[in-house]
Specification:
mainly alpha, two-stranded antiparallel sheet
Length: 148
Amino acid sequence: MGAIQQIFQRFGPEYLARFGEQIPAQHHKVIEAICQCRTEAYGSVCYQCEDCGHPHILPAACGNRHCPQCQHRKTQQWLERGLQRQLPGHHFMLTFTVPEPLRAFLRSHQELGYDALFAASSQAIKALVHDPRFLGADRAGFFGVLHT
């Protein structure tokens, strides 16, 4: 059992009871899928060895694209491809977080809230790039990634 599955199984019911009305239905589905992944809830899959004919019975996986157990191999392949395409220059990461008082609003209004977060963060980066105390450049290349 993976760490995320353990966390969801332990704290998921309380989280859903507290915030269930405010989060998208898709989040409910993801939490449920990860909690039940590779458990009796999904049944089992039987593989048979082609050489000796011995059966191997394994618990079935949820297959959810957010499940770290199901998507681990794909995640590693994605990371390896990304590292191969990495530009040979200096780079760093900036993290913008949402203040605690705004998080409940964001849970219920994700499209509006994340659009505002990306707009504000890109404006802040552009301002710092132009400021001679920091970079003093005409422009910088950057992109935003949402981690929730």
